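Give me C-alpha cells for this 277-residue protein.
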Amino acid sequence: MERLANHVAIVTGGAQGIGGATARRLAEEGARVLVVDIDGDEAQRNVERIRTAGGTAEALQADVGTLGGVEAMVQHAVERFGKLTIVVNNAYGSFERGDAESVTEETWDRAMDVGVKSMFRVAKLAVPHLRAAGGGAMVNISSVHGLLVSPGWFVYEVVKPAVIGLSRQLAVEYGPDGIRVNAICPGHIVTERIAQRWQAHPDGLRFFEQQYPLRRTGTPVEVANAVVFLCSDEASFITGQALVVDGGLSIQLQEDLTVRLGRYAREHPDTLFSPTD
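Here you go.
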C-alpha cells in the first residue's frame, strides 16, 4: 500500500545519502516529492531514479542556507503540486573539525545558517501551507551527536542538539494545527561519500562496526524508512520526539565498550580507527 498517497513532500539535501534515500522512499509510498539540493545535477539524477521507478518528483537547485533558497523551494512545491504536507530537513552543509578556539566565525555562521537557521526559515514559510492542508509532518535530521558529544567537532556538536530543541518547540507550538514535528538521530550511516572513504580502509570499517551491538553500521534507506514511518498515519500520535536510529550505539555502557574495542584493537593492530583520519 502507498502510505503517503496524496501527500506532497520537500526533502532538503535530497540528492544523495540519507536525503536521497528518503526522497526515493517517500515517492515509493506515493508522495509527490520536491528534491532540493545545492547540487542541481545530482538532484536531477535522483529525480530520474524516482521517475524510472514510477514515482513523481521534481528537482530544484537551491541553497537552504539562504532565505531566498527556502522561499524558492516552498513556493515551487506549492505551485507545482498544489499543496505541502511533508517537510524533511536533511541538509546540513559542511562541518570543519576544530574547537571553540580554532573554529572561525565564518565556519560557525555557515553551519548555523544551513544546519539550524534553515529549519527556522522552513518552519516560518512552510507551516502556513501545512496548516492550510489540514496538518502535516516535519522531520528534522539530527544525529547521535545531538545526544552525545565528542571532542574536536565543536560546531557539529552544537548544531545537532539545536535541531532536537527546535523540533520539540515546533511540536508544542503547532501541534494544535495538526502538525507533527520529530527529529531523527542516526548513528554512522554509510552514504555514497562515506563508502568511498571506507573502500580504501576496509579493516577500519570492520573496527568501526565493532562499536555497534548489531556489529554493523547503518544504510541510508534504514534512516529513510524511519522518516516514512514518522510521516505516515502510523505515527499519528508521535510528535516532539528524537528517534534514535543507531544500531544500539548509544545505549551501551561505555566501560564495557572500551574493554571490548581495546581487545579487538590488540587482535587487529593494523586497524584504522576513524574514517576521518
